[in-house]
Amino acid sequence: MYTEVKNVWESQAKSPEEALALQARADLMINLREIIHQNNWSQKEAAQHLGVTQNRISYINTGRVSKFTTDKLIALLSKAGYKVSLSVKAA
């Protein structure tokens, strides 16, 4: 029997708050991955532009959310020339 969840992170998180944090990191990572692809950067080029190793870019491309903090993802987006803004709304 399957348990219905609102998003994939609910099934992996220990609490609803943790699920929201995982979703936020995933969203940031997706944006960063799209920027890398829009610029047609190889992993090596992306690593050079963002000041990280190729392994870190591989983690971004494969969605390894657990390998990054929210702060690090925001810093990488900033290095790519983007500003991150947040919105808050009632649940």
Verbal overview:
The protein has one domain: 434 Repressor (Amino-terminal Domain), CATH 1.10.260.40. It is 59% helix and 0% strand. The protein contains 5 helices and no strands. It is globular. The relative contact order is 0.14.
Report a brief summary of the structure.
With 91 residues, the protein is mostly helical.
| CATH architecture field | Orthogonal Bundle
**Percentage of residues in strands:** under 5%
Radius of gyration: 15 Å
Count of alpha and pi helical runs:
5
Oligomer kind: single chain
**Helical amount among residues, as a percent range?**
55-70%
Q: Please write the string of helix (H) and strand (E) elements.
A: HHHHH
Termini Cα gap: 28 Å
Mean pLDDT: 89
- The tally of domains stands at 1
Task: Give the low-pLDDT segments.
Answer: none
List the defining traits of the structure above.
59% helix, 434 Repressor (Amino-terminal Domain), mainly alpha, 91 residues, 0% strand
Topology diagram in text:
Layout: H1 8-12, H2 16-38, H3 43-50, H4 54-61, H5 70-79
Helix pairs in contact: 2-5, 3-4
